[in-house]
Amino acid sequence: MTRKVFYKLLGLFTLLLVFHAVVMEAFFHQIVENSAVRALPVLGREALLSGAAALLVALPLAAWFSLSISRRLRRMVNFAHRIAEGDLDARLDDHYNDEISTMATALNTTAARLEQSFAEVESRRKELATLLDSMQEAVVAITPEGNVSWSNAVMQQLAGTPVREGRPLVHSLRDPDVLACTEVALLDREVSSGRATTLLPGRTFEINAAPLPGGGAVVVLHDVSSVEAAEKSRRDFIANVSHELRTPLTSISGYLETLLEDPNPRHETTREFLQIILKNSNRMNRLTEDLLALASVESPDYKISRQPIRASALVEDAIESLAGMVVDSGIEIESGGAPNDVVLADPDAMTQVFGNLIENAMKYGKSGKRILVSACTPPDDSYVEFVVQDFGPGIPYEHLNRIFERFYRIDKARSRDSGGTGLGLAIVKHLVQAHGGRIWAESELGSGAAFHFTLPIFSKDNLPVLTSNPLGIDDDQAPIPISPEPAALPSTDSK
């Protein structure tokens, strides 16, 4: 029992003794006065009644005081149970000035500190969860028993089915490589890594599983599909470049060796061989120029000098500047009309785009005898759609989505015979995308192929007033440079 409570009980007991002494003194005083007239049994009975009266007064006081202390202690027990159940907002309300009240104050302070500590832990847990959810990697924590204790949002999306806490990992992820790495981290307490290729079709994930200090493990899945695709593209690009260079080099070396081995070569043979050597060297030169052009347009530092130009002026300029290229080919370039809408475009880049598309149409649509260049503005749209169409054999459907890839050819033998490098359409795609447009091809076998690309419209009302008018724009709509002009790109073949 605490000191102050003991003092209170001692005081109450003393008070009861004093009260009992006063009562007994009064009763004995009456007994002495009445001793001459009352018998001894009566006096004893009165003494007994006086003691009982004192007890009747003392017992309720003692019971009240005991119940008061009991209620205060019961409130503390209930308070402790509420804290144990996680109700950290619970507080004791005790206004007495004793040790029990002091203990209640200390418990309230402890509860407040616990509440603050748990709030900080919960805040940090939410920050960690937000941080892990913002990661591109999929993360899942495993208990020592192999059950999921936590997973981030990326893991939930990757699994396809809900990754529920408390359930075995195998119920959500059935990739054998992931499970094997997890088992090594759980049982051997060692860091394990691997690759998963069956989680999602066509995607590869790097697995890293590490043991946790308190038991269990954490598994991280990093999507390396884009890295592997880039690496494969790099290897394919090097292989294609090597192949494209090796073919003309082999031809040049073979004919030169033949000439050198013949001490007296015929003039006609020498001239024929030299023409073949020149043809292959020109092919290598075109490939080199195309590679430089492609490297330029794919560079992050590549910039275009976009100017407001009429769509009709772009079409007319393309036909006029490229008409000489088809004079001896028996092919006619025709205009299919174009709107007067003003687009934002780099004139040099557009010459490159139209040149590659028209040259591509000449090579692979020659049997159609004509090429149609046109433009139109779809209703309620903010762009102009340009079209370069040939009337040759057309392109099979399965090739339409791949013809803008580097070195991709529909007919490799015919492409090499025509001198194409397979980079022209890839360059066109990058140039159009640099203008904020898009490009695609449409074709039906036997009906020719049409290459479409778009350029954004520049509002007529926003054009500045300049005096120059090089590309058919009215005086109040003359072109102005928007960014530094890049170096001119060489003309290239398409496929």
What do you see in this structure?
There is one protein chain. With 495 residues, the protein is α+β, with helices and mostly antiparallel strands. The protein contains 11 helices and 12 strands. It has helices at residues 3-33, 40-84, 99-134, 153-159, 176-188, 225-261, 267-298, 311-322, 347-364, 412-418, 424-434; strands at residues 138-142, 148-151, 192-196, 205-211, 217-223, 307-310, 332-335, 342-345, 370-376, 383-390, 439-443, 449-456. The strands form 3 sheets. The protein has a 5-stranded antiparallel β-sheet. It is elongated, with a radius of gyration of 48 Å. The chain starts with a helix and ends in a 39-residue tail after the last strand.
